[in-house]
Structure formats: C-alpha cells, structure tokens
Amino acid sequence: MQANEAKPRYAGTKKHSQIHWLLYCRPGFEQDCAQEALRQAKQQKPIIDTEQPAIIVDSGYVVVALNEQKLSWHELIFTRQLIRLHHSITALPERDRLTPILDAVAALPGTFGTLWLEAPDTNDGKLLATFTRRFQPLLETALREQGRLQDDPHATRLHVFFPDKNSVLIGTSDPRNSAEAIMGIVRQTMPDEAPSRSTMKLAEAIAVFMDRSEQTRLLRPGMQAVDLGAAPGGWTWQLVKRNIRVTAVDNGTMKGVLANHPLVQHLKQDGFKYAPRKAVDWLVCDMVDKPSKVATLIGSWFAAGWCKHAIFNLKLPMKQRVAALDSALGGIRKQLDDEGINYRMMAKQLYHDREEVTVFLTKTKG
Ligand SMILES: C[S@@+](CC[C@H](N)C(=O)[O-])C[C@H]1O[C@@H](n2cnc3c(N)ncnc32)[C@H](O)[C@@H]1O
C-alpha cells in the first residue's frame, strides 16, 4: 500500500479550517439530506470556499464540508445520524485493515464511550455485516488495550464506517446531538398481534421523539386519542396496547383484534371532516394526502384545542421535497404562533418511513 493512501483527509486544513460531516440517510435521499444540512449551516453563517457535498446517489450517506457552522441532528429531517468526520482511508490493505485504522484513531484526542462499526443501509452495505461483526472485537480489544475505549454511553462515540470493505470513514458523534442507535436506526420488531406493519412506524416515532420519562408522562392509561386514517389498525394497536382509548376514523376495515376491541370506537367517516365531541389527548394521522393539506388539518386541531399531542405522517412529493416540507411545517408553525400556542415540533424520516416523514408535535407550557 502507498503511504499516502491512509493519509488523514478530514483533519481540517489551516487555509479554510473546514469541518467535514458524515451524515447517514435513507438511500435515495442523499440530495435532500445534503440540501437540508447546507441550509441549516447557511442560516448561521455564509459557507465560504468549501467543496461541494460528495453525493453518491443511493449510497445512504453524504459528506458535507462546512466552515465553523454547527449542525443540529434534532432539526435535520433527512439525517439519520450526524458524525463529525476526521479521517478517510481508501485502499485498506486486505491483510491488515486494523493498523491504518488504529493509526488514524491515534491521531484523535481523548477517549471514547462507545465504538460503532457501521456500513451503509444498502444491499451492498448489508453484505458487510459479517465482516464488521468479525472486525469489531479486534478493533475493540486493541482500543481497550490502548485505554482509548471506556464504556460510557454519555461520552463521545467513535464511528468506523465502511462504505465498502476497502475503505473506511472515521468520525465521532456527540450523544447529545445524534441518534442513540447504531447506524441511526432504532429497530423495531413486528408484534404478532398488530394488524399491519405500519405499527412499527408509530413504535419507532415514540422511541425517537420521546425519551423514557416523556413516554411515561405523555402516553398514560386512560388517555383518549383519535386516529385519522386508522385502518387496518397498526397505529391504533400501539395506543390500545398502552391502554389508551381510540376513536379510529377510516372508511376501511379495522382488522384482527381491533375489529372488535373494547377500547376502540371505529367511525367510517372522512378524517378531514371529523370533529371530536370533546378534546382528546392525542391525535395520530396516517392519511395519504398532500403534505400541505395534512399540515393544515393538524394545525387546525391544535388551534381549536382539540388535542395536546400529535404524531402524523407527511407524504413526500417526488421533487422539491425539502421545499414541500418547509412549506407544510411552516404552515403549522404559523397557525400555532397566531394562536399564541407554545409547542415542540420535531420531524424525521424514520427507518420505517419510505416516501414520507413523521412529525411529533406537542403543546408545551409557556
Ligand atoms: C397508510 S394507511 C393507514 C395505516 C394505519 N396507520 C395502520 O397502521 O394500519 C392510510 C389509511 O388512510 C385512510 N384514508 C385516506 N384518506 C382518508 C380520509 N379522507 N378519511 C379517512 N381515512 C382516510 C385509508 O382508507 C387508509 O386506510
């Protein structure tokens, strides 16, 4: 191997003091991911003299160069994981991948709380799983012997990301500004009893948007919810599982245990016209329609005081996705601001989302 093939590339140059970021996303959404990150950075300071984002279509990741701007994982919809990139090594020698990686890690300061070996969420990336499983203990043992790895979930994480078997990107993440799960994917298992795979979408949304104490506080037995576009019942199932009463609105049929469930009232009505008789705690909505139409509906529920919390899906158009989301979410913000409502809103393209994103909206105290 040539010595320069393992040369650190992302340590920042004196000339531009660039900071490189490695962002994971759903394959096919690299452009949206980069566009959104650059926009967030530009809102802080103009981006001067940095290279264009390295976008490989369908790769499941992007590398973005910024000046000193910071990125906020919580506010990036298309970014699954946010990593400060330090080194890139191409042409890893097949017989000894470990040494160049250890050399690159040696150049980083401090110790790490967690080591995650990762690969893109693509078919090719999945083929690397056996390799990363075998490689993990080798690297982990070496780093422990050097005193660089200490088990601490709150400390900086070390990411060793293999776009393929012969190259590696090495970076770090801050647990307060990144996803808590390897590859940024909060995995869910399909419950036997749930009537549709969509149930995993709501389960993932609850896990990503709310910490444990918020889940306990906001999803309590005896609460009332409305599920718009409920059939066949995957989202309703997540709520009744938590002993929450649900009014399920859909012209379609509720299936399995939800066809006749003591906590579920099924109404065959239009979800865009339905109005609750009394305010409820939760609104969930998975109706497939224009994002602007769904956003207006959600905003009007909050403005009318019909619910306190909501989780809903916004289907993405084929083009101009970032602009469509901006407009839909901006519309909700305006409706709530006009009413003087305090709120927290977070949107993410979750692992179980395809051409859509999921949004959490909750009223907060003053
Ligand atoms: C993606 S599916 C919902 C799946 C459901 N969340 C689950 O977990 O099983 C969308 C549903 O929205 C319903 N839908 C679409 N437009 C609607 C409307 N205007 N009023 C009520 N339901 C509607 C459809 O009938 C369909 O059942």
UniProtKB/TrEMBL annotation:
Residues 22-83 form the RlmM ferredoxin-like domain. S-adenosyl-L-methionine binds at S198, A231, P232, G233, G234, D250, D270, D286. Residues 196-289 form the Ribosomal RNA methyltransferase FtsJ domain. InterPro entries: RlmM_FDX, RlmM_THUMP-like, RNA_MeTrfase_FtsJ_dom, rRNA_MeTrfase_M, SAM-dependent_MTases_sf. It comes from the Bacteria. It holds the Pfam family RlmM_FDX. One of its GO terms (molecular function) is methyltransferase activity. The keyword Hydrolase does not apply. SUPFAM superfamilies: S-adenosyl-L-methionine-dependent methyltransferases. Keywords: Cytoplasm, Methyltransferase, rRNA processing, S-adenosyl-L-methionine, Transferase. The active site is at K315 (proton acceptor). Residues 96-173 form the Ribosomal RNA large subunit methyltransferase M THUMP-like domain. GO terms for biological process: methylation; rRNA processing. This is Ribosomal RNA methyltransferase RrmJ/FtsJ. It comes from Candidatus Gallionella acididurans. The lineage of its organism: Bacteria, Pseudomonadati, Pseudomonadota, Betaproteobacteria, Nitrosomonadales.
